[in-house]
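Good morning C.,

I know you're traveling, so I'll keep this short. The sequence:
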Amino acid sequence: MSSHRQEKVRRLAAPDIAARKGGEPIVCLTAYTAPMAELLDEACDLLLVGDSVGMVVHGLPNTVGVTLDMMILHGQAVMRGSRRAMVVVDMPFGSYEGAPEQAYDNAARVMKETGAQAVKVEAGPAVVDTISYLVKRGVPVMGHVGLRPQAVLVDGGFKAKGKGADERARILDEAKATAEAGAFAVVVEGVAEGLAREITEAIEVPTIGIGASAGCDGQILVTDDMLGLFDWTPKFVRRYGDLRSEILKAVNGYAEDVRARRFPGPAEIYFAKAG
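The tokens, ready to paste straight into the viewer:
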């Protein structure tokens, strides 16, 4: 009998997400820290430790500079803060595009050191065989087609995909190949709405849309965008909060009180006991 206390809440895993194809929409958001993961956990089915952390948290111009160590660090934090949602960690640029053996070593390290339930890779012709290689060796993989942030330097920016016939056909083929290689779900980012629906109908695993279609099997957004923490948000983001304004209001209030010596006041100060 195991000496470890069993968790009362069972965490969702790849088979649970895969089984939602065509059913109740899958709720996904990004998470990079333990406190945010704790807040999101109850409402979300899947938390993605996205390489968007490079831009959102570390101030990088794109995701290319994100390292494996960074992803592991944030993956560990999200696992500590969550209990129910499935946690998927992005494989960063340069960690899986080479030999499948290299991808496996890096993916195994991510899963061992974070405890996450899966990794995500941006799909493409050179990556399909790698997905199959990982899945056959016990690594659940989520794919990613359409706008691929790690290819931003090749594409010359973050540009919507699938507007032309040739590009539509290529992305659809990539999505099919990704699913056939064993991915349990596929993120579909920044593509024409009709193409997203076509992909969703064409593959047997769930699609997770971001800038795609309400017809996808689930949706994901960068949490910080959705909460309104930045001045600018992409077209496909709906702001469900305006935390930037609230934070600025709080910080300015604090600064004013400090400068006016209103803070700290009697309620925030320790006093010696009389006698």
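Safe travels,
E.
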